[in-house]
Amino acid sequence: MDHPAVCHVKMGFPVEIEAMVEHESVTPLANDHGGFLFCRLDGLGRVFELHTMFKPEGRGRGLTTAAKEAFALMFERGARVITTYEVEGWTAPPLSFGWRSVGDFTDTQFGPVRTWVLTLEGWEASPAHRRLH
Q: Tens digit of pLDDT for each residue in 20-76?
């Protein structure tokens, strides 16, 4: 997806989305307006890094619904921890899903970012998970 509203996910690298989604360590989940890339960080498939790519018209309620379904699927498949990054000035992951920040913003080559984590326990205790069931 090379839409200008989501190209930041590649963080400035000249990587083709097709190569990313076809990589054995990546679980891509998509709909008509974008999707998620869950990048496996461990050998057992229990820890993933999340990258979210949705065009503006796919954000809001559609993105919220897609996220609930994606997290439910990933945790059902054995994930135990999902991490993501908040770029300063962008929207933080929703606390109502069980996300928690890990530390403050840190300067990186991509600008200030903060790490967020969603655990299986955090997801199962969240209002978003309860509304799904």
A: 778 889 999 988 888 899 999 999 999 999 998 888 877 788 889 999 999 999 999
Question: Of 69, 70, 104, which is closest to residue 85 (Cα–Cα)?
Answer: 104
Q: Residue 19 class from Cβ within 10 Å (0-12 exposed, 13-18 middle, 19+ buried)?
A: exposed
Give pLDDT tens digits for 91-116. Answer: 889 999 999 999 999 999 878 999 99
- 61 by Cβ neighbours in 10 Å (0-12 / 13-18 / 19+) ranks as exposed
d(CA 129, CA 36): 18
The reported pTM is 0.84
Q: Per this entry, what is the length of the chain?
A: 133
In three-state secondary structure terms, 47 is strand
